[in-house]
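Students often ask what a holo structure prediction actually looks like on paper. The answer is less mysterious than it sounds. You provide the chain, you provide the ligand, and the output is a string of discrete structure tokens encoding the 3D arrangement of the protein together with adenosine-5'-triphosphate.
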Amino acid sequence: MTQQTQGSRLEIQGVQKNFGDFTALKSIDLTIEPGELVCFLGPSGCGKTTLLRIIAGLEQQSAGQLFQGSDDISLKPPKDRDFGIVFQSYALFPNMTVCDNIAYGLRSIGMGKTQIKARVSELLELIGLSDHAKKYPAQLSGGQQQRVALARALAPSPGLLLLDEPLSALDAKVRHHLRSEIRNLQKKLGVTTILVTHDQEEALAMADRVVVMNNGVIEQVGTPLEIYQQPKSAFVAEFIGAMNFIDSAPLNGQRVKVGNRELELVRPMPEVQDSVRLAIRPEDVHLMPVGDGDWEGRVEAMDYLGAFIRTQIRLSDVELDLVVDVDPRSARQLDLVVGRSICLHLPSDALHCFAA
Ligand SMILES: Nc1ncnc2c1ncn2[C@@H]1O[C@H](COP(=O)(O)OP(=O)(O)OP(=O)(O)O)[C@@H](O)[C@H]1O
Ligand SMILES: [Mg+2]
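The corresponding structure tokens follow.
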């Protein structure tokens, strides 16, 4: 029977980090609930690792406070905080067996020999490596090494599990497999987890909530669905999934002008602006036979991506190329080929509108 790890709530209040005159984190406020798996997602250099290191106490914040449960951990050294951590590179002890690697943290908290043995075999079973206990790290595959690193981090049953791009050194197949393994393990143990990644697919697939970061600030926090369907900024819209952007001028009320056409919007518009950016996902644009839709265009390119075909359509009366995803059956019905004229419709409830 697996011992349930007690997840604890983490509160980050007004955390800022300066390196000299460079501000790596501006003012971060974030609460992570017990048992949640939260992904920090954002482009390289946006501050993900810095924030994770501050949570671990490996880096000292320039301002702000951190609480784990009711415990103020703002000034505590790493050894007095309750977390396990896994980095991108495996960082296992090369001269220790799998068993000894996993047991490492248990010895330092003074656990007895018999208990350690039981805990290690429980963890080995959990990560599916019971037959590899006596091997050394160099005798394991990359994916197996990361599983051992995970078991080592989980061994003392920490309240918080911190993972900094733990899968990015692995090949795609192993990465996909480990994603769901980590996810299942995390839910089973109930351990509050933060996973840092710059891979949006990984974040959307694994997270309960995604924290999208850019330039040292949090752009948006939400469930994968919220982040994908209701991006709050053009940055989030562009960073997560594919998105078409269309420059336009706001008119009265919920109307905007694109070229010499007017469009009605359903979603909220930003506060008064001279110009706005409309955005629409490739799968939300409808293609239809010539004569049926609002816009006319020409098929410029078609890429077969398995489940759908990614087409590029050049609109005739505005200077604009749109990326449109179409399922193979509709493509057949429309007799879609490069060079063909086609009509398209932009459903108003699929149009997002951001400040330019
Ligand atoms: N010790 C340091 N001294 C000076 N600048 C630093 C230091 N550590 C990080 N930075 C800077 O802070 C910014 C954020 O770095 P961080 O490592 O948190 O980014 P990241 O989001 O984890 O990026 P990546 O996806 O590439 O790992 C970067 O511009 C980086 O150069
Ligand atoms: Mg990083």
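The pocket of magnesium ion (ligand 2) is lined by residues 48-49 (CB under 6 Å).
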